[in-house]
Known about the structure:
Layout: E1 7-10, H1 20-28, H2 41-52, E2 58-63, H3 65-76, E3 81-87, H4 94-97, E4 108-113, H5 121-131, E5 135-140, H6 147-152, H7 155-160
Parallel strand pairs: 1-2, 2-3, 3-4, 4-5
Amino acid sequence: MLDERHLIYLHGLESNSQTYKAALVRARYPDLLVPDFTGSLDERMRQLYPILGSASNWTLIGSSFGGLMAALFSTRHPAQVRRQVLLAPALVLPEFAENLPAPIDVPTIIIHGKQDAVVPVAVNKPLAEKVFRNLDYRIVDDDHRLHKAAEQLDWKELISS
Length: 161
């Protein structure tokens, strides 16, 4: 069951807590945590760990680089994650792609634009399929930013189910 106190949005690399997609989700879930992250992936992960702590039942929503962060956290701490929704996650980056984590059963929904020129679906999808055993990979008619798709997504279905 969704615990809205354990719902977090992780923004992309050159983004912040005020992103368009974060605002869409926050409009539906006012208690959504949307911290700002800076620095390298390692620095961002060090910023994320104290926020999530040892609590369980987290629902992680991550966009692009934030999707990579969510994926790394869930593969390292699957018992803490209830579900994750990854928006064009940057799984193609070496930190994930070259050292594939062990497969996990965390329910994972990936939304990916078929016109994504930043994180190509053809490379990303096979990586996700190797790691996430409970995977729903949805390819939509959009680009990397997913602004058009984000407006049309049923956020309640994605997050609450």
